[in-house]
Backbone:
């Protein structure tokens, strides 16, 4: 180009307008005016020789799988200045060029929420090869993942900040000898020392071998994020010792689903729906499977689907919905039955019935109900119907339920649910317009918020069933077990025993108390109450049970029950009692309130630091994620070999400078093999020692080779892709991180039962025709190898099909077993329609019903919505998530309510919780009020997912070079008092001061050099969980989270974050819910629980199930 | 050629003015530069006569009116990038595959995107400033009487106006004029549009006058 191009000297005059170029001079030079955004770089080649595309062709660009072991990428800091197009790639000859980093992309999956979206950990090889530390630089999506499709939410990308948390626990910690639990005195220990101490205690407990010893070790799991390994831990020891967190999470919805389908949960096909019908903000903006569900919902809306969100709170989802249905919390059942009423009693615009008769007639167990004349007479007695139908035909069934649901009128719903009639009618129209293509995910909010919340789920499915939307077809609702893969605990063939452990012979009343035989999941939220309730234990022991009075070892796993469960002070009381919990250790990647009261904290890995097989039912397919420890995989691929192959993950993390961070699979295999049962005398060792070399524990490749052998398509593909490998299944999953075993699963209940010669084949099992019969309802029953008869399918229209998972193989409108287990009045979807009936049917009426709102400052408190960027108790170690979630959890109050009470935005308010079953007051919390139109009148909203605390900023660890910080980026410092009856918590220092106080203790300094920019104080939530008493639902067993509260302006000495709890009262509240509402086992019962329901997690024998009460 | 020297200085000033106006929010110095020069001010007739200018100070006008209008026009509601108008998928091409960037690169020009605070180098303000740079180069060529360079630069300017600026800015500027809520950006949009059209005629005229056909084709 011409030599004149790069001269920047400017002229000094211009001419006038119209011709623009002729006239008098301007007084302003062009150079004075110009912004000056150009510069010339004549000495740098514009486009240097490189393989880099200056910019990807599409936003979804991702390195191809073949390049994952070595992919070089330009540094992001330079990218924004124009890519290689400006400076070329950095080299010895071009030092000012853009830095290019060689990465290894190790696939893994997110472990923050339950969705298991695919991730890739970008391990920096360049720095490592230059002599630096091996580190992950970022986490990105995994485009191979069928569920998440390469996408992640903020929580997924935050894995990076969690990995290099400044307060990360770098090695196993042990409570200092001589100190008490909760004193906060810790010493450093080793994994081997910890395993030796814990293993001995477990060995000594198991060695006793009696009934009590088999109930004395409890594995207590937070969100598992894996499929089945955790169950195997107590199972292999012959224990009934598994507690899940599910009864504070989603057990209410599961109960309703179990009654319809004997399945754990529903599984919608969002993508093909015409109407997305959400109850709560879950699915689309915060909760369950959020990122994947939201993407599919967006796909459906792009194709024209409508979105309805039913929620008392204007959530993000509700804000962008076509219709927001604010419904008084806990009354949703009435609305669902209103829909059923209109579907049954009206016709469409074509004059035809709105009921999908083909589906209902074939796939609902109406025939059983119509045959049960005694029960029909009972329904007459209960005034649900006027008379017993003359015949037992399908048509009479439809007529009968049409009459049964006719009281659920528009007027009734408007009054009961406090919804405007026009909204209710619009909802109905949208529901009908979508035909059978209505997708929903009934999960949290209503079903976990209320006494009888399970009936919300039970009733919710009724209109879906009537419209044929529960057929598991395109755009409708399917079921969980169709869409999930569970093989993480199925590596038995790799172990010395080569088979599953046998069924366990004991029943653990601490997990499954006799008051709750139908509880969806373990009664873990009252574990401390049960342990400390001597009267309760004596009562049941006097009736012939053998209830343990203590636990020898309590093992929370990635769980923080002290903080997240209701009645937290009761938990602390129990954990402090060494006579009740003799030893405790938390397998936990982070500090937590619970850890503070444990004996050991054993740091296990985060998403990119562990192995798990994880699958979830997020769509009509079966996919799995394989979680990988990225640093280990990278080291091994570069030729590194561990000294002990059974501890490779631990060794790799130490080598890479991450700390002594391990993982459960290797930990359990090692502790069982070498410490719990070193000589094999307890019969435990053989389930964990390697078949290849029984002197050592099973290795990861061995375990997963065997586990993935259970998946025929995966196995075949792995063999083809890795023909020379000893562990092809493991290697393929290590390299890809995800697998789609089966796609497009629709209406699997219609899959045929095959008959080959004299053999029937169902679900992969074979039955000789002589062992197979059909009952009067068309159910195909077959005897198994033990001679026990079970339903394997059903005849529909002359065809033998596999059917649903129920005993009837159909969807149970009439839940016969529920009737038999003492709850006949609720064996069908029902809801009281007047105040008198609400008292009689109290088991299905919320504790926050508007009947209970008497004073002008009484409110229902909506607590269970998630914040989209928090993960219950797992996000406090992420500076990124903590930053974006600050000040996002006030108390939402309707503007007119606030005005009436003189409450303004930002005011501190005192929220006092009281119980409507016992009439007792629990205490109060102080929080910040925000008046808004985004919550309905009379209903407050404050998520229970904020309000973390700590009692010390840091602890001294003898021998460690500096103090070890505690939850610095996310928990303020508090002062606590507790005296056995009352407890208080008061904030004393915010995040900023706390962090600055501990500057010298920050770990991973290079990654955390921005920490002195912390601006958030952290006081945006109160520990309301501690104030809340446990409300065990009398049937589903879950904690009913919502609270009746009264609100007033806080006093002058009250500070946001303060709580006061009368936990003596809270104990009485739990007892009132238990004693006033349940129908416990009695001398007429022979079983602890219906055997066909999925739980307990550990397979139990007939002996364990049997009961004989005096 | 003397006349052409004066003209090129005028072109430099106007390109500098309109590129600056479209690229970043105005400041008091910029407004004072316009206001102190009657000829420049005459390019903004509605602005010149706007009552609010008598009621409020420039800093108040900037804060309450101009910045709001700028945000509306250049950041939020209109898309001031060529690729948005010229690509079928209406995506902004922010990387090196952008033909405008390729052109800059060919001529050894680099855009400091972080200074410009734009996401792509085909922003209207950047393209106008590129014309300003080309005019500055032309001025230098005139000073040293580099006839070959003059013709080459005129041809580059003609091509850039025809193939890029005039391909999309008329639509954008008409929209900007319609959507603007202040006389400053209303007049500025009209000025830019009128000037670009007239400048294209001017460049063609000069090429015909001074550059023989073979030279143009080089």
Residues:
């Amino acid at each position: 180009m011409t030599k004149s191009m790069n001269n920047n000297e400017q002229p000094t005059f211009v001419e006038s307008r119209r011709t623009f170029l002729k006239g008098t001079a301007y007084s302003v030079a062009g150079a004075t005016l110009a912004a000056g955004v150009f510069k010339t770089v004549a000495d740098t080649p514009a486009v240097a020789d490189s393989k880099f595309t200056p910019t990807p062709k599409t936003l979804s660009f991702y390195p191809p799988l073949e390049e994952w072991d070595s992919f070089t990428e330009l540094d992001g800091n330079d990218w924004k200045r124009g890519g290689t197009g400006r400076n070329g790639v950095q080299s010895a000859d071009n030092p000012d060029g853009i830095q290019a980093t060689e990465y290894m992309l190790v696939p893994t999956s997110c472990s923050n929420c339950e969705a298991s979206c695919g991730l890739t950990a970008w391990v920096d090889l360049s720095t490592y090869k230059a002599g630096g530390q091996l580190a992950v630089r970022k986490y990105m999506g995994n485009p191979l993942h069928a569920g998440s499709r390469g996408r992640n939410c903020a929580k997924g990308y935050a894995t990076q900040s969690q990995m290099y948390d400044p307060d990360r626990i770098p090695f196993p910690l042990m409570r200092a000898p001589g100190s008490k639990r909760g004193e906060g005195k810790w010493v450093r220990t080793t994994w081997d020392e910890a395993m030796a101490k814990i293993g001995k205690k477990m060995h000594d407990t198991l060695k006793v071998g009696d009934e009590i010893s088999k109930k004395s070790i409890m594995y207590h799991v937070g969100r598992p994020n894996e499929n089945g390994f955790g169950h195997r831990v107590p199972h292999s020891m012959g224990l009934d010792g598994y507690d899940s967190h599910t009864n504070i999470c989603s057990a209410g919805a599961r109960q309703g689903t179990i009654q319809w389908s004997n399945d754990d949960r529903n599984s919608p096909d969002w993508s093909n729906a015409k109407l997305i019908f959400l109850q709560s903000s879950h699915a689309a903006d915060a909760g369950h499977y959020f990122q994947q569900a939201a993407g599919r919902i967006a796909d459906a809306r792009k194709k024209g689907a409508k979105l309805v969100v039913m929620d008392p709170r204007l959530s993000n989802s509700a804000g962008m919905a076509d219709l927001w249905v604010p419904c008084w919390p806990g009354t949703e059942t009435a609305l669902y039955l209103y829909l059923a009423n209109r579907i049954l009693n009206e016709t469409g615009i074509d004059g035809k019935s709105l009921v999908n008769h083909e589906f209902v007639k074939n796939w609902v167990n109406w025939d059983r109900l119509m045959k049960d004349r005694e029960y029909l007479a009972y329904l007459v007695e209960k005034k649900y119907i006027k008379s017993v139908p003359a015949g037992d035909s399908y048509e009479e069934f439809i007529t009968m339920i049409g009459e049964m649901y006719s009281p659920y009128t528009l007027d009734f719903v408007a009054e009961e649910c406090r919804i405007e009639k026009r909204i209710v009618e619009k909802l109905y129209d949208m529901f009908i317009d979508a035909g059978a293509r209505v997708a929903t995910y009934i999960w949290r909010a209503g079903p976990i918020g209320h006494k009888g919340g399970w009936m919300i789920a039970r009733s919710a499915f009724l209109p879906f069933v009537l419209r044929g939307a529960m057929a598991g077809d395109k755009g409708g609702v399917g079921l969980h077990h169709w869409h999930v893969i569970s093989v993480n605990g199925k590596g038995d063939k790799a172990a010395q025993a080569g088979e599953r452990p046998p069924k366990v012979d004991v029943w653990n009343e601490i997990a499954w108390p006799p008051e709750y035989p139908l509880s969806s999941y373990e009664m873990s939220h009252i574990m401390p109450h049960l342990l400390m309730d001597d009267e309760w234990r004596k009562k049941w022991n006097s009736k012939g049970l053998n209830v343990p009075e203590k636990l020898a070892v309590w093992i929370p796993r990635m769980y923080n029950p002290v903080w997240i469960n209701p009645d937290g002070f009761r938990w602390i009381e129990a954990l402090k009692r060494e006579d009740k919990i003799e030893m405790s250790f938390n397998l936990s990647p982070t500090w937590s309130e619970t850890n503070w009261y444990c004996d050991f904290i054993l740091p296990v890995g985060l998403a990119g630091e562990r192995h798990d097989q994880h699958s979830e039912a997020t769509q009509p397919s079966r996919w799995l994620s394989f979680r990988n420890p990225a640093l280990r995989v990278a080291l091994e691929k570069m030729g590194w070999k561990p000294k002990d192959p059974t501890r490779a993950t631990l060794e790799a993390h130490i080598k890479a400078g991450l700390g002594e961070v391990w993982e459960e699979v290797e930990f359990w295999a090692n502790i069982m093999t070498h410490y719990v049962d070193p000589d094999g005398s307890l019969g435990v060792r053989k389930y964990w020692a390697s078949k290849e070399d029984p002197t050592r524990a099973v290795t990861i490749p061995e375990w997963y080779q065997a586990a993935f052998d259970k998946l025929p398509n995966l196995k075949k593909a792995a063999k083809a892709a890795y023909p020379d490998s000893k562990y092809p299944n493991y290697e393929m999953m290590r390299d890809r991180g995800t697998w789609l075993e089966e796609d497009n699963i629709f209406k699997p209940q219609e899959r045929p039962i095959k008959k080959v010669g004299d053999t029937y084949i169902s679900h992969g099992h074979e039955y000789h025709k002589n062992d197979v019969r059909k009952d009067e309802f068309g159910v195909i029953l077959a005897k198994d190898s033990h001679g026990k008869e079970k339903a394997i399918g059903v005849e529909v229209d002359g065809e033998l099909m596999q059917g649903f998972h129920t005993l009837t193989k159909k969807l149970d409108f009439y839940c016969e077993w529920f009737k038999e287990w003492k709850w006949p009045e609720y064996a069908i979807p029902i809801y009281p329609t007047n105040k008198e009936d609400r008292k009689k049917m109290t088991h299905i009426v919320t504790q926050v019903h508007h009947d209970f709102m008497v004073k002008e400052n009484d409110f229902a408190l909506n607590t269970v919505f998630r914040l989209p960027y928090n993960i219950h108790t797992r996000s406090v170690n992420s500076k990124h998530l903590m930053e974006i979630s600050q000040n996002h959890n006030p108390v939402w109050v309707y503007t007119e309510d606030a005005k009436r009470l003189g409450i303004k935005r930002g005011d501190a308010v005192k929220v006092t919780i009281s119980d409507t079953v016992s009439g007792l007051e629990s205490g109060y919390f102080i929080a910040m009020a925000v008046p808004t139109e985004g919550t309905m009148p009379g209903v407050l909203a404050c998520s229970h997912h904020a309000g973390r605390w700590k009692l010390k900023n840091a602890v001294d660890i003898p021998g460690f070079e500096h103090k070890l910080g505690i939850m610095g980026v996310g928990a303020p410092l508090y002062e606590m008092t507790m005296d056995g009856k009352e407890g208080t918590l008061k904030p004393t220092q915010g995040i900023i001061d706390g962090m600055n106080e501990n500057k010298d203790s920050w770990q991973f300094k290079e990654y955390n050099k921005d920490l002195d920019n912390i601006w958030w104080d952290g006081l945006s939530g109160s520990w309301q969980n501690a104030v809340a008493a446990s409300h065990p639902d009398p049937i589903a067993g879950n904690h009913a989270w919502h609270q009746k509260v009264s609100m007033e302006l806080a006093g002058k000495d009250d500070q946001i974050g303060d709580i006061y709890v009368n936990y003596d009262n809270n104990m009485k509240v739990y007892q009132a819910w238990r004693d006033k509402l349940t129908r416990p086992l009695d001398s007429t019962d022979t079983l602890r629980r219906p055997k066909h329901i999925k739980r307990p997690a550990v397979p139990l024998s007939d002996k364990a199930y049997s009961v004989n009460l005096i | 050629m003397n006349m052409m020297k004066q003209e090129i200085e005028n072109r430099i000033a106007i390109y500098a003015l309109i590129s600056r106006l479209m690229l970043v929010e105005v400041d008091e110095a910029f407004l004072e530069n316009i206001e102190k020069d009657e000829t420049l001010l005459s390019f903004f007739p509605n602005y010149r006569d706007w009552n609010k200018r008598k009621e409020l100070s420039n800093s108040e006008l900037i804060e309450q009116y101009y910045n709001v209008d700028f945000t509306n026009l250049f950041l939020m509601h209109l898309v001031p990038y060529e690729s948005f108008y010229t690509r079928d998928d209406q995506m902004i091409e922010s990387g090196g595959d952008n033909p405008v960037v390729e052109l800059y690169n060919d001529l050894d020009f680099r855009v400091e995107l972080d200074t410009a605070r734009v996401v792509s180098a085909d922003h209207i303000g950047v393209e106008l400033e590129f014309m300003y740079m080309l005019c500055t180069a032309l001025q230098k060529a005139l000073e040293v009487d580099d006839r070959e360079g003059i013709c080459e630069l005129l041809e580059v300017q003609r091509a850039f106006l025809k193939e890029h600026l005039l391909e999309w800015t008329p639509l954008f500027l008409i929209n900007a004029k319609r959507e603007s809520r202040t006389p400053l950006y209303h007049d500025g949009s009209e000025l830019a549009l009128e000037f670009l059209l007239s400048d294209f005629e001017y460049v063609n005229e000069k090429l015909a006058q001074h550059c023989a056909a073979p030279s143009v084709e080089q």
